[in-house]
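Appendix B. Raw example, untouched.
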Amino acid sequence: MLTGKGPKDGLKRRFSSEFYSKYLPNGEKHHRDWLVYSKDLDKVFCFCCKLFKNKPLPSQLAHDGLRDWGHLAFSLKTHERSPEHVNNIFIWVDLRLRLEGNQVIDKVLQHQISKETKHWRKVLRRLFAIVKYLAKQSLAFRGNNERIYEESNGNFMALVEMVAEWDSTLKEHIRRKKNHEIQYHYLSHKVQNELIKAVAYEIKGSILQKIKEAKYFSVILDCTPDVSKQEQMTLILRCVDVSTIPINVHEYFVEFLVVNDTTGQGLFEELQNVLHHLDLDIDNVRGQAYDNGSNMKGKHKGVQRKLLDINPRAFYTPCGSHSLNLTLSDVAKCCDKADLFFGVVQRIYTLFAYSTKRWKILTDNISEKGFTLKSLSTTRWESRIDSVKAIVTQAHEIREALLDLAENETNSSIKSQATCLAEDELGKYEFIVGMVIWYHILTKVNIVSKELQSENMRIDVAMDSVHALIAFFKEYREVGFEKALNCAKEIAAELEIDPVFSELKKKRRVRKKKHFDEISTAEIAIESTEPVHEESAEESFRIHYFVYIIDQAIGSLERRFEQYKQYEENFGFLFTA
């Protein structure tokens, strides 16, 4: 219905919304609800006469419409007084009343349509519920076939069958499908994918709405290859959720991004494209967090540098837990003895784990409440505490299991490995001291790592934890070796081995072959007068192993958490105000 005025014609006349009403002789205002104006045609029509006329009428209102604005008032008054118009008005009013009262001739058909509509809505609600359950539990949908009540038809079909056992709606739906009463049953893999996409679309829309309401957000990226060897980048957005009381900070997984160019420039372009696709302004980014890879954290060509060049307010923060992992990796790789120690730990696990018979020998020697051996994690270094703890707390039992294996094993290779691990590794005091040192280090680092991964961690608390860890290493450097020796002596007594370091093997001095006349008297004098300082085996272990790895840990922590320290200085007042 036009509420204003229509366009002017050649005589500067036009339709006005005032024609929708007429005034009776007694002054009452009456609405012409049968009058319809078409903006496209710029004409008026009589709605009821155009629909219900049973013969041609003289008025253009019932046919092609009327545009004579100068005589429109007279034409409307003449038309509404005609018997044909009055009769059509009666037909229209009667039909409207019967439609409102559901008393029309197709009442049964309308009832059936309404019933079917409700049935399909109920079916779709149950299918959506099944889709949400499987997606939330990260379960596969399909099996080897898509036929109902057949073997290996997948989790989706299995849940449909289960719900149909007590739900009348799905039971009726399956009956119709089996009897071929319906062609479209919404159980195929294509429909499953459509339902998944529909749920994902709604969830992503809800997330983006919260981010846009908050306006400012942070970006978290991480890359990893999937099982098909395709590099995938995870996009996570972090923002303040203003829709909750109290207001909270939340992180939302948005999507996986397939990347072919893993350079800093390639990853940054992918980030730009996805933010544009999500209708998010890159200028509203206030934080970026990645791992410590050079393509991410690079000061010149990394993703964080590319984003800072466009938006200087997008502060970069490296992953704290990943920085701790790299610290432990730095410490382990800086010393051959540390690297060999973890190799021995993995060899002990592998020797028992690769055979059920050998694993049974292990479990027979350790108590029921004891710790089972764990494989070393290649990425989460702090989790190696579980692997070391199982050996430290059960060194005697594991050594007995190795000796038992060496005695009963028929395979000479396995027998040799078990004997070597029991006598040359667990049977050496040096290995036990190193094991205790790493147990103390990993225990402390694991505690800090879990604190950094807590959901509501603040930067000031994180830096306090890091400072406390550095202080621990500095104190441990001074008194830790004696503590480690005391613990190692207890374990050595239990293993019945002497708590004495093996004597150092003297390195053969390599001399360059010279002719008899090339040896000068000065060199002979220096060699004869040069003082010889020989370190004890224990002192050598302390200086070249213990002190060395502790110094590496302190230096790596201070270097890798330098960025956190800077942010604490800039924003620390927010947490102390």
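End of appendix B.
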